Amino acid sequence: MEKLIKYTKGCACARDLLCDNGFDDLIDFPLDLFASGLGGTIVHKPMTNSDGRIIFGKKNTIIEINNGIPFEEKRRFTIAHEIGHLVMHKGIDIHNDNEATMSWFNNKEKQARNGRVEYEANQFASELLMPSIIFYKKQKGKKFSPKLLRDLSSYFKTSLTSVAFKYLELGDHPICLFHSYNKRVKYWMRNDDFPHYITDCTKLSPPEDSVAMEFFEKGKIHTKEKSKQPIWKSTWLELNKYENDNDFNFYEFCIVTPAYDSVISIVWEE
Ligand SMILES: [Zn+2]
Questions:
Q1: What is the pLDDT of residues 134-146, one digit of tens each?
Q2: Which residues, in sequence order, are CB contacts of 227 under 8 Å at separation 6+?
Q3: Considering only CA atoms, which of 261, 258, 265 is closest in space to residue 149?
Q4: Which residue numbers delimit the IrrE N-terminal-like domain (predicted)?
Q5: How close is the Cα of 163 to the center of ligand 1, in Å?
Q6: Which of 104, 105, 122, 164 has the smallest count of CB within 10 Å of its CB?
């Protein structure tokens, strides 16, 4: 069964912008040039405590991007996020973005203006770099794995985190995501069709036997080859009384950002 693509405001805005300009995707198109066509000048420079910044002027808008961002994919996602502000949020005069403002887990603050603006810019960036129809076709029929997410990240040239969230929305295999920061679980999300209950551990430490906790306690980051780690169902999810942990095959894959003490755990069943 095909998933229904839900076009949120930011998502629809990016889709229309691509369509109006005659693009199927921007995979091989320089984002700096795309931004300049929309009246935004991109400046790459060293920045502290900021990944990107937008300064709206009367005539011209400047978008500054931190040239210290270590991955091209993350740099592209940041540029796309700022382009989202450029086309959707003209009223704000100056705006700074970092790991916190660009967090995907801002559902609770979505009603507040800042939360909504960031959510829209992320949805915009996601659709600009990974058009839903193309993303859906690319993942269809492929087994879910950390490698699939990495392959999608290099195909669409965007951050692994943004791919994980796109997969949560559109991917064929049910997954759930937990974001832990500073040894505390901040938020979790799951697909509508994820068939298990989640033990709500928001504001608590990640589970003792989770891969996320292994990072916080021991600084352990698994290599690419070993990034798919077996866990118990009861690690992150509710184990019913009539169930036995041995009857399930659950895995956890962590996207770790040591500089921000942040871990995104992707949990799925095979
Ligand atoms: Zn922003």
A1: 999 999 999 999 9
A2: 146, 253, 254
A3: 265
A4: 38-165
A5: 18
A6: 105
Using CA atoms, how far apart are residues 192 and 189, in angstroms rounded to an integer?
9
Query: Can you list the domains of the chain with their CATH numbers?
Result: 9-134 (1.10.10), 174-269 (3.30.450)
C-alpha of residue 65 to centroid of ligand 1, in Å: 12
CA dihedral sign of residues 71, 92, 85, 110: positive
CA of 121 to the centre of ligand 1 (A): 6
| Contact indicator for 263, 269 with CB cutoff of 8 Å | no
Distance from residue 118's CA to the centre of ligand 1 (Å): 5
- 56-107: per-residue pLDDT in tens? 988 889 999 999 998 899 999 999 999 999 999 987 767 788 877 777 765 4
Pairwise CA distance, residues 250 & 44, whole Å: 42
Alpha-carbon distance of 127 to 229, in angstroms, equals 30
Whole-number Å distance, alpha carbon 184 to ligand 1 midpoint, is 24
Strands (E), the chain: 40-45, 52-56, 61-66, 94-97, 175-181, 184-190, 229-231, 250-257, 262-269
Query: Under 8 Å CB-to-CB from 48, ≥6 apart: which residues?
Result: none
Report the alpha-carbon distance of residue 77 to residue 224 in Å, rounded: 22
- Ligand 1 mean position, distance from CA 217 (Å): 31
